[in-house]
Amino acid sequence: MIMYLLMGLTAAVVSYGATWGARVVGNRLELHMPIRSRDMHSTPVSRLGGVAIFLGVLVALIVASQSFFVKDIYRHNFSPWGVLAGATLIVLVGVADDLLDIRWWVKLIGQSAAALVVAIWGVRMTIVPWVPEPIFLENEMIRIVLTAGLIVTTMNAFNFIDGLDGLAAGVAIIGGTAFFFTAYWVHRNAVLLDYSDLATLLMAVVVGSCIGFLPHNWFPSKIFMGDSGAMLIGLLFAAAGIVSTGQITSGLYDRANGISTVIPILLPFAVLFLPLLDLGLAVVRRTARGRSPWSADRGHLHHKLLDIGYSHRTAVILMYLWTAVLSFGGLAFAVFPWQPVLAADIFATLLMGLVTAWPYLRRGSDEPVA
């Protein structure tokens, strides 16, 4: 645990300092996009925050390769470097989009290229979790295509949710922390000669980098992570999820209260539920209007919270709470018997639903009766 926390701290310190530098460079060179109608800010803000987050991840992963315990992850294993190569490519694509506003299909090509780099040289899906038995993927081409598709989907999900100050970074911190504890817990409770784990390390460094970035990004934001940061976080989350999914048959999840095949499915989707829901709703909404699924609009979940009366900060905190309920609710399945966990999760979800809809319900109750 200590080494993972040290790697997370390294990422946080580097990211915090690098964000200062990105703010100075971005403001002096005016490296920001014109304000758009859907934007929630009224003054130009630098969008180079993703570069700072990436530097935190980069330095932490390089330090980890030479550090006690976690360096075992790199032994005879090119996967960490493959993930880092894909991360480097997606940050370059994101910076180009943040500064030049490239066409959606050009960005999609870039996302696909980065995802393929990870799928070919980094991590790859070998198993599709299913109940009662997982499905093994024998064909290498199918493995690569499914891996790349999952990574692209997750990148866009995080990119879509990045619409309010501090939202994407905070969601990544909360969800990544739950993911980190789950990956760490199953390894410490299994009979292994080597407890080091790539998924745990990736979550430690991405959470650390987002912690270092968030003070600069909290409302009112002084810098944005941009597409480069949001897509980077999505890529790292997807890579960690793929690593965890591939460990289903290793015996690591056999202690998870008899639901070994469910935990790898549940937690990544619980952590990413809000971004994936927002992505799905956006695709349906835009397609129904005859527009490209990648065209921007002001119809995301966080926009809806603002529309029903929540302030900027309150809407972000509400999204944080939803993420905590979903992600730590998923984590609880790995630690406690599933029956009380399911009951507690249902209660928490209903309570959060009531809290979320309260301004709308109160407005309806205030209307005079005819």
Task: Give a short overview.
Helices cover 68% and strands 1% of the residues. The protein has helices at 2-28, 49-64, 79-100, 104-121, 140-161, 167-188, 198-217, 226-245, 263-271, 273-288, 301-307, 312-333, 338-366; strands at 127-128, 135-136. A two-stranded antiparallel sheet has the order 1-2.
Describe, in plain words, how this protein is organized in 3D:
This protein has one domain (2-360). It is mainly α and 370 residues long. Residues 255-261 have low confidence and may be disordered. The chain contains 13 helices and 2 strands. Helix 2 packs antiparallel against helix 7, helix 2 (49-64) packs parallel to helix 8 and helix 6 packs parallel to helix 12. A hairpin with a 6-residue loop joins strand 1 and strand 2. The longest helix has 29 residues, at 338-366. It is globular, with a radius of gyration of 20 Å. The chain has a two-stranded antiparallel sheet with strand order 1-2.
Rg, alpha carbons: 20 Å
Give the helix/strand class: mainly alpha
- Strand content bin: under 5%
Could you list the spans in which at least 5 consecutive residues all have pLDDT below 50? 255-261
Helical fraction equals 55-70%
Distance, first to last CA: 63 Å
Shape: globular
Summarize the main sheet: 2 strands, antiparallel
Number of strands: 2
Topology:
Layout: H1 2-28, H2 49-64, H3 79-100, H4 104-121, E1 127-128, E2 135-136, H5 140-161, H6 167-188, H7 198-217, H8 226-245, H9 263-271, H10 273-288, H11 301-307, H12 312-333, H13 338-366
Antiparallel strand pairs: 1-2
